[in-house]
Amino acid sequence: MDLTTQTLQQLQGRLRAKEITPTEIIEALAKRIEAVEPKIQALLDINLESALVAARAADVSLPLGGLPIAIKDVINTRGEPCTCGSQILKNYRAPYDATVIRKLKEAGAIPFTRTNMDEFAMGSSTENSSYHTTKNPWDTGRIPGGSSGGSAAAVAAREAIAALGSDTGGSIRQPAALCGCVGLKPSYGRVSRYGLVAFASSLDQIGPFAKSVGDCAMLLNAISGRDPMDSTSLDVPVPDFTASLAKDMKGVRLGVPKEYFIDGIAPEVRARVEEAMKHCQSLGAELVEISLPHTDYAVSVYYIIATAEASANLARFDGVRYGHRADAPKDLLDHYLRTRAEGFGPEVKRRIILGTYVLSSGYYDAYYLRAQKVRTLIRKDFSDAFQKVDAVICPTSPEPAFEIGDRTADPLRMYLADIFTIAANLAGICGISVPCGFAETGGKKLPVGLQFLAKELEEQKLLSIANAYETTTGWSKEVAPVG
Hints:
Layout: H1 8-16, H2 22-40, E1 43-45, H3 48-56, E2 68-72, H4 99-106, E3 110-115, H5 149-156, E4 163-166, H6 173-179, E5 182-185, E6 206-210, H7 213-223, E7 253-257, H8 267-282, E8 286-290, H9 298-313, H10 332-343, H11 346-359, H12 364-385, E9 391-395, H13 411-415, H14 422-427, E10 430-441, E11 444-454, H15 459-471
Parallel strand pairs: 2-3, 2-4, 7-8, 7-9
Antiparallel strand pairs: 1-3, 4-6, 5-6, 5-10, 9-11, 10-11
């Protein structure tokens, strides 16, 4: 039995039945990583010895006892690197655990491997990593999505059983769609951001990647909840998200936003999503056409708000307290200029410059303040829609994975890759991407993702709907051909 093909739920059952040990799972993953990592390059750090020590001491009676979880390299894990895919943090090691890491450990999980990412989570392809470009396990000439491309690729290539990522504008859902796994973005405030290196503080949210909706529910159980270290985390009950996963959609009303079915969607993506919608109807769902009238402004609003917050958040990387420091600076100004010029990559510099501009005197009202007002309208669009429907159904990405290098010279075209995911972050709602079939390109199958969106804090309903689709189709059981 190949343990790397198993889900968290399957492995949990075998661990508790004493058919396998946590050490055997780690060793199986290590062997798999050795075989496929040179082809995929999903990882930035592999601390096998530490994982084996934790595995030998694991208590399998705990909710995630003995189960290894890969961690996006933007989440602090004590004693481990946390580079954020950037040269400016090349030699940094985290002095503390993020709240989600503490919660995983308390649930018995073993953080194992650090996954590659777009630098400071700024990108849609994982080509902006300062270390290497991660490849898509379905076609190694194509991108895995981003910014959490390493987490998605690791799960799809079976280098990880499950993983954590972060989603600021689609960075969990889009790579999950392109790599053919499940990716969940919780509501803003559902999961603590303490220990997540901030990109855009009002948009960032940590969430899981897994091989199944049920596995995502398991991880959400562990990482959710109020945290006094994060003032934006919400003091709301955490239900057992695994307790009510349905297998049908009787009585469910799914909203179909007319603004999300537009020219520019790849024909095969549209076809797979429309087939998925018909399948939902066969499970008892009612499809209701809805309108999200401010959708056209979402990308523009996002790239004002996100870059403004990035400009403020990344000001802390000055080479004084931690991270890269320029050699032999002439004075303090030279130190700042050279440290940041050497440490940050082109995309991060681009966003800092744009964010600084929209916050500057004379432009704040014209850009940032206006963007916040439109954000309120986008949030109202969803609020109005959820009075009529239980969830929204739409594509996750307008196209399958594109070729490596295809968009690096065209940032605007790259930004449009997140056109169907950005609005959920602006509104603070929850969303999930599940596999719904394949597009054929160059004789290769490329995964297509189906996105469900639900009202803030209605993850239980969202997961139930997604589970009904997943368990009656089987697309999540398809295995990437790499290796």
